[in-house]
Request: fold
Amino acid sequence: MLTISELASYAGVTVRAVRHYHAKGLLPEPERDRSGYRRYDAHAAVELIRIRILADAGVPLSRVRQLLAADDDAFAAAVEEIDRRLRAEIRDRQRHRDQIAQLAAGDSLALPPEFVAYLDRLRELGFLERVIEVERDSWILIAAQAPEHLSTLMELKRQQIEVPEVRALYLDIGEIFDCAADDARLPALADRVVAFIEATAARVETSEGRHAALDVRTDDAEWLTEELVALLDAAFVASFPSGPRLLELLEERGWTGWTNMRRIAR
Reply:
């Protein structure tokens, strides 16, 4: 959970901008905790990043809420209207036109084309839309934290998803996405996750390496900060009703975490 200053720094805006978005009704303002501070979760970070991108593209704040809530057809129509307005403005607005033109599809709001293609590939493979949404939001958070690593990380992920064992595991997770914490399939899923992680670690782990379970893997993971891991894990737990129980089962099998799964020291 983030304070308002941490949230602003993470999304690349000022605290004043966050408060302005609160006042405009674009970003819900959370209740204060027992210490008197407002705490923000991963969903708030994703929404703030989207608002910032639209604002940076020249979209008036009066239109941002409409665009964020619009369906594909309404979104495309709104983009065309804005594009017509920008064409009538002076030359230095050309950059804004280019950015607006990239907003023709919802997934490309905060992700470059190769990431949208990856999400489309998940749809081709039969992944549930809710699972794809979790994947998309995770990449939005990663893109904000480590943009210089995106190309390498996406290439690794694209290769991984074509491995039958990995794809089957993802699909099985999707099958029990809405299951209850006492669902009898969860222990078997935990066994399969651990088997996959241990097999992967045995193949490629080095004395200096780190790995991110079921996500990306690299021998240089300085970009994978504790803050980012916490946000990604929180997004997973918030989206997957039995996520907390699955994490408990993984800990019983000697592993902790989800985004950056680590073996528990004995």
Q: What stands out?
A: The two ends are 29 Å apart (CA to CA).
